[in-house]
Amino acid sequence: MKRTITLYFFLIGFFTLFGQDSSYRLMTIEGKFVSEHSYRYISRTGKAVLNGQEVFLDTLGNILITSPYENMIWQRISNASGVQHLYGARGGKWAVLNSRLEPVTGFEYEKIEKVHAEIAKVRKNGLWGAVDMYGNEIVPCIYEFIDEFTGDFTIVRNNSKAEAGVIYKNGKLVVPMSGANELRSFQFKDHRLIAVKLGWNWKIIDNTGKTILSFEDGEVYSSNSPDDPFSTILGDNLHLGAIDRVSGQVIIEPAYDKIDIFPQGAIAFNREKGMYSFFNSKGELKLTSKNEIDKTKSGLEIQNDSAIFDYNYEGKVTKILSKDDFYHAQGDFRDWRTRLWGYSDGKKLIIPCQYNLLNNIDGSHFEVKKNDKYGIIDINNKVILPIKYDYIDIVAYNRCIIEKDEKNALSDWHGKQLTPMIYYNINPTPFDSTLFIVTRYKDNKWGIRDIDGKQVVPDIYSQQESDIRFTIADNYMGYGYYLVLRDGKCGILNARTYKEEIPCKSYRYVEKTSPHIAILGEGNKCGAIVATNQGLKRIPSIYDTIKILANGAITAQKDGKWGVIDENNNPVIPFENKIIEQYYNDILIVGK
């Protein structure tokens, strides 16, 4: 499948610096030239000048087209097999071009912005309209503002007149200009329909401007999922219903206090009648019940005092399970009347239904919630961790993190507290689940404790100081190394040996710019540290600037010139360049 990338080319690119005598080449991160051409400049978007002629390059650096225009906007195919949607500028004005770069409109537009797969909005004489890719002006340039297209519709405004309307992609004004104090819209599945809010009133209109449905005091809500068959409506009677997302017609009358829409249909509830109803994806009523209808992974479920009924999406019973039968199925069990949870061993309930939450930890221990407090019980319903905590987080090796009054501690499952409750955050380290990073509540200092709560790294490191902000997860370099800040100085901690491998003494800053590389500032110079599974590699602090590009290339500046080095500080591209930037993937722009 071809993947298109839309690129906007401007006269001066943000990422490109060039001078009259500049020479730019494309090179791989290994230092090999991509082509024999040397350009006056190259932008990261592929615009270049070769022998005084503007050209455009594909993502591999091959010359794709040569432009006779001052500037261009185009859409290119990433594999360089063709171009489409071309716009060129001459004399400061824009025109639409065909695939041979010939203008198919006059150079009459002051600005062009692509806003749709087939449509671009254009400005002429200070007013906006829209053209298609063939140069047809489908929306005349008579509006002070034109919005992004919502599917095949967009909003146009004349702000000086406080007017707004809606146009279809063929240019037809389907909602006439009016002084509406609010205009909102969303697209339906069928691109010929749109819901529009004009002031306080909602309308559903088609692409000819015909009103399909209107609400004077109601509301229309966009769907949560593109697969949902309906959109929710609030009718004039302030009750909820649904409209079909293809036809725009009311398919579930507004008669409900709650409605839950999903791809297979909708479950609605009428509080006055105490009745639940299920409608299939065609809007047909298939099931009603005085008991709540729940959605399951494969259908619907209704529980009463004696049994559990499974239904398909056509309202047909597929399974009936009595509660006695259910007790013989080992696992969690929820009492329908109380909505509380218990547990069956396959013969009977051995844990009564008395918990708001019951989470099976390992088959013999359960995390439970009761009266908004958390604890742990065993298979015999014996409390082993008191049900008194605001939150607990189960971790490995018979350990959990307990929280009370916004403070945390490490505990075993039997209630033995292994650390003082002085931390606002406790998390297992990403490289060893038996070690925990702990952050103190009072001063944000952090350290590391082991699985028994023993302090193996003191709580001496800062998360924030001066203008340097350390979030612990963001500053993990991999292989057990952390960037750390202590007493205003930076270093690197080996969290496996619990030692500072790079002491927090001399570095004014440490900045992680890639997953395993950190830049160090020492005096007015900088170096870098590379974390590997063999240990740390150090790039000495001899450079003015070091930048790690998204493709992993380590670029450095020395005596005002840029080069590329590898992780062992060996030069890959000599230090003789004005700029080095990433072009695309592993290709660099190198400019002298």
Please describe what this structure looks like:
- The structure is a single chain.
- The chain has 592 residues and is an all-beta fold.
- Helices cover 1% and strands 58% of the residues.
- The strands form 17 sheets. A 4-stranded antiparallel β-sheet has the order 1-7-8-9, with no helix packed on it. A 4-stranded antiparallel β-sheet has the order 3-4-5-6, with no helix packed on it. A 4-stranded antiparallel β-sheet has the order 10-11-12-13, with no helix packed on it.
- The longest helix is centred in the middle third of the chain and has 5 residues, at 323-327.
List keywords for this structure.
mainly beta; four-stranded antiparallel sheet; 1 helix; 1% helix; 58% strand; flat; disordered N terminus
Give a short synopsis of this structure.
The chain has 592 residues and is mainly beta.
Low-confidence stretches: 1-20, 76-83, 465-470
Can you give the mean pLDDT?
Answer: 84
Helix coverage percent: under 10%
Structural classification: mainly beta
Strand order of the largest sheet: 1-7-8-9
Q: Would you count the extended β strands for me?
A: 63
Distance between the termini: 38 Å
Described by strand count, sense and barrel closure, the largest sheet is: 4 strands, antiparallel
- Helix run count: 1
**Proportion of residues in extended strands:** over 45%
Rg of Cα set: 33 Å
Coarse morphology = flat
Layout: helices, strands, pairs:
Blueprint (H helix, E strand, L loop, with lengths): L3 E5 L15 E5 L12 E2 L4 E4 L2 E5 L5 E5 L3 E7 L5 E8 L2 E5 L13 E4 L4 E6 L2 E6 L4 E7 L1 E2 L6 E6 L4 E6 L4 E6 L4 E5 L5 E6 L2 E6 L4 E5 L3 E2 L9 E5 L5 E5 L5 E7 L1 E5 L2 E6 L4 E6 L4 E5 L3 E3 L4 E4 L3 E5 L5 E6 H5 L3 E4 L6 E4 L4 E7 L1 E4 L4 E6 L2 E6 L4 E7 L1 E5 L3 E6 L2 E6 L10 E7 L2 E9 L5 E5 L4 E7 L2 E2 L2 E2 L6 E3 L2 E6 L2 E6 L4 E9 L1 E6 L2 E6 L2 E8 L2 E9 L1 E4 L5 E5 L2 E5 L5 E7 L1 E6 L2 E5 L1
Antiparallel strand pairs: 1-7, 2-63, 3-4, 4-5, 5-6, 7-8, 8-9, 10-11, 11-12, 12-13, 14-15, 15-16, 16-17, 18-19, 19-20, 20-21, 22-23, 23-24, 24-25, 26-27, 27-28, 28-29, 30-31, 31-32, 32-33, 34-35, 35-36, 37-38, 38-39, 39-40, 41-42, 42-43, 44-45, 45-46, 46-47, 48-49, 50-51, 51-52, 52-53, 54-55, ...
